Each structure stands twice: as structure tokens, then as C-alpha cells.
Known about the structure:
By secondary structure, the protein is α/β, with parallel strands linked by helices. It has seven helices and eight strands. It has helices at about 1-10, 20-40, 45-65, 85-90, 100-115, 145-150, 170-175, and strands at about 70-75, 95-100, 120-125, 135-140, 155-165, 180-185, 185-190, 195-200. Strands 1, 2, 3, 4, 5, 6, 7 and 8 form an eight-stranded mixed beta sheet that branches. The longest helix has 21 residues, at about 20-40.
Amino acid sequence: MTAEIEAAVTAAGLQPLSSQVASSFQSYLELLLKWNARLNLTAIRDPEEILHRHFIECIFAAQQLPENIHTLLDFGSGGGFPGIPIALCRPEIQVTLGESQAKKATFLRESLRTLGVSNATVHNGRIEDLEQTFDAVALRAVDKMLEACRIAVRNIGSGGYFALFITENTSHALTAEFHQFSWQEPLRLPASSQRLLMLGQLIDVPRGTKQILA
Length: 214
């Protein structure tokens, strides 16, 4: 499967993965398939679909994140998307996988241990209870995206980034709601007609003025 992963990365026009990282993705896929039967980590069961829908989209995002990001929160990590792929592709980023469900958090910890990922940890609890701020917060396939963003914005540090996996029909509402961000042009995810990656940077507010948070 490693060859298939490398071929899919090339076909999507992404930067090649090292053989070690490609091998880690193969091991990650095996873990997902093993645990998915009882935890429902993803509705996608086919390995090829997992590769193209989950892995390729997250690898694309990892390669698009600005170089000045050193810490990232994966809000509602679930099966580890996009946090684990980002941790594998960008070892200089310290990733926190936020997951409130204990069983899924157990899967995430086992994945990090098995894959030997040293630049990621798991926060098993409500994000509202996490007081730390990050250089970036990523959200993908979370329920009630707008409400989740309103919570997550509090965890973005000065000049930090939102990385949102969304559909085209929700992009305008989100950019209008979070006007304190400077939004880049949406990036279409590989092999998708509707799914987008949106990157927005929190605008630094001059001292003495009030920042309005959504």
C-alpha cells in the first residue's frame, strides 16, 4: 500500500513524501481499519477511499500551512484528521489532538504510540476547558461547524491561523462571521468539486483598541 500512497500523492500534485512518512501512513491506515469496526472513526470503509478522501486532503493541508506555525490544535480530532497527517508531514509542528470521547482518544493515543509520533499529544476533554492558545487551529468534519468555530477562535494566539475544511456553500457565512481574520482565497481540495480549505490569519489589533470576537 505504500506504493499506492506515494502514487496518490504524486497524482494529486503534492510534494512527495519520504519513504518513512509514506510507511507511517500505511501503518496508520491499518490502525484505522482495525479500530473502525467498533469505534466508527470514519464512515468510509474502503482503503482506497480513505487514502484519497482523508489522507490526501490532510497532506494537502499540511503542505499549505504557513512555515511560521509551531503549534496546532486539531479541534474534534476523531480518527486523527487532520492532526495526525499534519504531525507526520510537518514534524516541526507540535500538534494537540482535541477529542472529547474517551474511546476515540484511546485510539489516538495508540496511533501516536504505534507510529512513533513524538510531536503530538492528545487532549481528552472539552475544548472549552483548554486554556492554551496555538499558532493554528484546524477543524475538519466537525458537527455544527459555525458553533465549533466560535469556541475554537478563543484558542488562536495573536497572529494565529484558522484552517477550515468546509464546503463551498458555507464559506461565505464563515468569512462574514469571523471578520477579525484576513482570509486567503479558498483552496479547492484535491479531486473535489465542493470541498475547500480556508486559511485565515487573526489580525493583530493595535494596543488600546478592543478586538471583537465572534
